[in-house]
Design goal:
The chain is of the alpha/beta class. The protein contains 15 helices and 24 strands. Strands 22-23-1-24 form a four-stranded mixed sheet. It has a four-stranded mixed sheet with strand order 2-15-17-16, with helices on one face. It is globular. 52% of the residues are buried. The structure holds ligand EPZ.
Length: 428
């Protein structure tokens, strides 16, 4: 067990290099199953979710070589299993992508239900709807999702709700199906486009990724490729939110500014000054954030994965803000932790009323999930006193070298190992 110890009050100055996108990496790595050749993937984020997927690929029989901490070469030709037991799938949502990839390769998959952050119900009915539209039979057998198909035939699929996971999984199952698949109401996130570009670099025929209509014309085989993952817009947004809360002047390097449009727009509304360059941006903030209303929506709306971080900034803003969660049923659980740090936030279902306070105060808190943990780090950076954050293994899932990157910007943050959870964590 480790924890962060953060002493608040430092402005953030300097530059930070953004890593590859977690949600692109966890979709692209399972997609390697569909290749007949060796895939070299660069700009992989050095995070525990990536390690977990690499472990799964090795368990399935893939030959995986780490070239360096951000580059991997995978030869999937010896993969000989289409079964993923619960112990391999329980910790993250992305394990569900192996259903689509295995269906695409073996026309067979037996995968335990995925885990992942707890925001309430996280069904996969739209994933299954897509698989069945392509001709697969999907049942639950002994707690495992069991999918099989004599053949996969391209088909139109309408997604009742915009779903990143369902869009990814249907793409994976459709790239080698016979004929044309059209996904209507598809997710438009940057990581969807990155997956489509990766698959096309292997020889797939996908058009329209990034729009709400994606067309996939099935091909016989997919070859090896060399590919570099896009930068992580949520990691970038997290550092931008930290500067807006703590004040400072930071160059956010190795990004695609277009992927950050909705985040930049809101931080500018809160008083930050942002200057964009080709692959970086400079954000400066020298006053108290202004209040601002936020509604999270599928891309290109404001990303739900930035909701805890932006709410933390608003908790010390000048005035009262409304934050409406438009994607998940229960993504405000972290507010209880923020309230222990003097935040004044009233939550009613999917809406939070955030009354800005002069400052947060240090307290022993813990990470409820990945992005809630990132929000606690931002809270610690601005709170008076020294804040301790537990459960930080959840933050390791999506943030590479967090302590090194923040220390490089002048933050006072340390990672220490503890023997057992504190009374706070045990009590809750
Ligand atoms: C992905 O989760 C991300 N995870 C999440 O990021 C992110 O919050 C989410 O997309 C929304 O952007 C990964 O990419 C690994 P969805 P996913 O399917 O695919 C409902 C992070 O912090 N739905 O787009 O699970 C669902 O309940 C993580 O990096 C169905 O009803 O999200 C939700 O209300 C946390 N049926 C909405 O759709 C389905 O079959 C969007 O979910 C699937 C989803």
């Amino acid at each position: 067990m480790d924890k962060y110890i953060i002493t608040g009050g430092n402005r953030l100055l300097g530059s930070v290099k953004i890593s590859g996108a977690k949600n692109a990496a966890v979709a692209i790595l399972p997609a390697v199953l569909l290749s007949d050749g060796v895939c070299r993937i660069e700009n992989l984020p050095n995070i525990s979710d990536v390690f977990a997927i690499i472990r799964i690929l090795r368990e399935l029989g893939a030959d995986v070589r780490m070239i360096n901490k951000n580059t991997v070469e995978i030869n999937p030709s010896h993969i000989n299993s289409f079964t993923l037991p619960f112990e391999m799938t329980k910790r993250m949502r992305a394990s569900s992508y192996f259903i689509g990839a295995m269906l695409g390769r073996f026309k067979r998959a037996r995968v335990a239900p995925p885990g992942g952050c707890d925001f309430g119900v996280r069904p996969i009915d739209l994933h299954i709807k897509g698989f069945e539209a392509l001709g697969a039979q999907v049942t639950m057998e002994n707690g495992m999702v069991d999918a099989r198909a004599a053949r996969l035939i391209g088909s139109p699929v309408y997604l009742d709700k915009v779903s990143v996971g369902a869009t990814v999984n249907i793409m994976l199952a459709a790239v080698k199906a016979r004929g044309l698949t059209v996904i209507e109401n598809a997710a438009r996130e940057p990581h969807i486009v990155d997956l489509a570009n990766f698959l096309n670099s292997m020889g797939a025929d996908i058009m329209g990724a990034g729009t709400s209509v994606i067309k996939i014309r099935g091909v016989e085989t997919l070859g090896g490729t060399n590919y570099s993952i896009i930068p992580d817009q949520i990691e970038a947004g997290t550092y931008m939110a930290a500067v807006t809360a703590a004040g400072g002047d930071v160059l956010i390097d190795n990004i695609t500014p277009k992927h950050l449009e909705s985040i930049s727009a809101k931080l500018i509304e809160m008083g930050a000054v942002i200057e964009e360059f080709d692959e970086s941006l400079r954000i400066t903030m020298d006053k108290r954030p202004k209040k601002c209303n936020i509604t999270t929506l599928p891309h290109p709306g404001f990303p739900t994965d930035m909701q805890p971080q932006i709410t933390t900034v608003l908790s010390v803003a000048d005035g009262t803000s409304i934050v409406a969660e438009g994607v998940w049923d229960n993504r405000f659980r972290y507010v209880e932790q923020l309230s222990m740090m003097n935040a004044n936030i009233q939550v009613d279902g999917k809406v939070a009323v955030v009354s800005g306070v002069e400052n947060l105060k240090s307290a022993p808190v813990f990470a409820n999930d990945l992005r809630a943990g990132a929000a606690m780090v931002i809270a610690g950076l601005i709170a008076k006193g020294t804040t301790e954050i537990e459960n930080i293994e959840l933050i390791d899932r999506g943030y590479e070298d967090l302590v090194e990157k923040l220390t490089g910007l002048g933050a006072d943050i340390k990672r220490v190992t503890i023997n057992e959870p504190s009374a706070v964590k045990q009590a809750l």
